[in-house]
Amino acid sequence: MSDWDFMRLALAQAAQAAAAGEVPVGAVLVYQGQVIATGRNAPIGDQDPTAHAEMLALRAGAAALGNYRLEDCELFVTLEPCAMCSGAMLHARLKRVVFGASDPKTGAAGSVLNLFGSAQLNHQTQVQGGVLAEECGAALQNFFRQRRAVQREETRAAHPLRDDALRSPDAAFEGLPGYPWQPNYLADLPSLAGLRMHYLDEGPSEAGLTYLCLHGNPAWSYLYRKMMPVFLEAGHRVVAPDMTGFGKSDKPKKDNFHSFDGHRQNLLELVERLDLRNIVLVVQDWGGLLGLTLPMAAPERYRGLLVMNTTLATGEQPLSAGFLAWREMCARNPEFDVGRLFSRGNPQMNAAECAAYNAPFPDKGHRAALRAFPPLVPEFADSPGAAVSRQARAFWRDQWQGQTLMAVGAQDPVLGLPVMRELQALIRGCPEPLIVESAGHFVQEHGEPIARQAVGFFGQA
Predict the structure, then answer these.
(1) Parallel, antiparallel, or unpaired: how do β-strands 279-284 and 251-252 relate?
(2) Which helix (H) or strand (E) element contains residue 186?
């Protein structure tokens, strides 16, 4: 029999694992051309973290031969082995290991590390990858696709949709470039009254810092896809919510649902509900209009501020000509193309990235927040949100104890450098801003170097 024949036997074991609800990985152990043992993933069923397909095949093979040394044996497995299994294979003195699909997350045969290539070890096992890789990879992809579909249905059943709201179809978010993270939902915040709010929550809960990333209008959490990997790589936690009406959160049908105080309360409750601490608040646009009013409510939770192209709207100064032009454009063109808006200011973005910003808004009914937000910016001293913004100004000027880093997209005609200089002057201890000359309003689209500077600046709590 050939390597391909043995790998097909391993694929049959993987199919049995999938049928049992396990990740579909299968293995066969061959001694002098004959199969002497098989294994399929069973950590869930056996309640055993070591019950990987390879480990089970090795155990069965050692029992069959009456020897824990398997020097004349070859192991065929559908997925690149992890560090645990690779160590067992080397300890067993396997002659050869053949795997199908590579594992870019935990593979220890070359993808993440290569235990088999370590000259310091006293035994070297031959390793070969890529045998029936497409079929092996497809088995895994199909399994996880089906599991995500089940999870989506369970989530929908757990959080029924209100009659006065809409939900963007899940299919609209499939395969978005640079956005691999799993969704999380809350529907029990008092201010949501049963609406479902989406948020990303990545990284260890016990991390030194939690980066709370708040988007603006007409964006959503996709905006932070270039910054999140940097924060996560440094070992931090990242929480990035979609405000109600945006992203994967539920979308009330009526424009008048939206209010400054209502959205602020959503965010205050989210911070409390998730018990976020050691927060670095990351804000831009409406993420700042709202987010800059949060820390004064619980200053002990916050350690840092990363502020980009935003302002505090206190109602004491006339709104800028640039903002008034934006508000007028939104009123005249309520169905404007969000992706096209991003492409005009960010020529480095590809078509798929631009299209991703349209994903939450497939039709007019899903766009109430986009219509409602421009008129919500506090314009006068008695406008909703103006008083709390003035309280926040006093907090940042007189009481803020944390570190602040400011980054400014210099090409922003609405909330560019002049506006940010004013904000810098009122935030206690705010140093000179990082100016990104090529960036416009959505400076996060140039966010990777900003995030790297933030990691070095804020360090660990």
Answers:
(1) unpaired
(2) strand 184-186
What tokens were used for 399? 């009481």
Neighbours of 191 (CB within 10 A): 17
3-state secondary structure of 27: strand
- Euclidean distance between CA atoms 350 and 348, whole angstroms: 7
pLDDT of 153 > 90? The answer is: no
pLDDT averaged over every residue in the chain: 95
The stretch 169-182 carries a mean pLDDT of 94
Burial class (CB in 10 A: 0-12, 13-18, 19+), 331: exposed
- Name residues whose C-beta falls within 8 Å of residue 149's C-beta, 6 or more positions apart in sequence: none
Q: Distances in Å between the alpha carbon of 457 and those of 64, 431, 439?
A: 58, 11, 21
pTM: 0.72
396 CB neighbour count, 10 Å cutoff: 22
Burial class (CB in 10 A: 0-12, 13-18, 19+), 383: middle
285 is catalytic: yes
Task: For strands 96-101 and 73-79, give the pairing.
Answer: parallel
Instruction: Of 251, 263, 104, 258, give the one whose Cα is nearest residue 172.
Output: 251
441 is catalytic: yes
Q: Is 5 a catalytic residue?
A: no
Per residue in 400-454, pLDDT (tens digit) is 999 999 999 999 999 999 999 999 999 999 999 999 999 999 999 999 999 999 9
* Residue given tokens 């919500």 in the structure block: 376
Backbone angles phi, psi at 404, to 5 degrees: -130, 135
- Amino acid in position 314: T
- Specify whether the CB–CB gap between 22 and 14 falls below 8 A: no
CA nearest neighbour of 294 among 315, 312, 318, 319:
312
The residue from 159, 198, 215, 441 that is catalytic is: 441
Query: What is the distance of C-alpha 218 from the center of its chain?
Result: 19
pLDDT at 391: 98
Residue burial 266-304, b: 16+ Cβ < 10 Å; e: rest: bbbbbbeebebebbbbbbbbbbbbbbbbbbbbeeebbbb
CA distances from 245 to 205, 361, 362, 381 (A): 27, 9, 12, 26
Query: Choosing from 198, 285, 366, 446, which is the catalytic residue?
Result: 285
Q: Which of the following is catalytic: 159, 215, 412, 446?
A: 412
pLDDT in tens, 59-116: 999 999 999 999 999 999 999 999 999 999 999 999 999 999 999 889 999 999 999 9
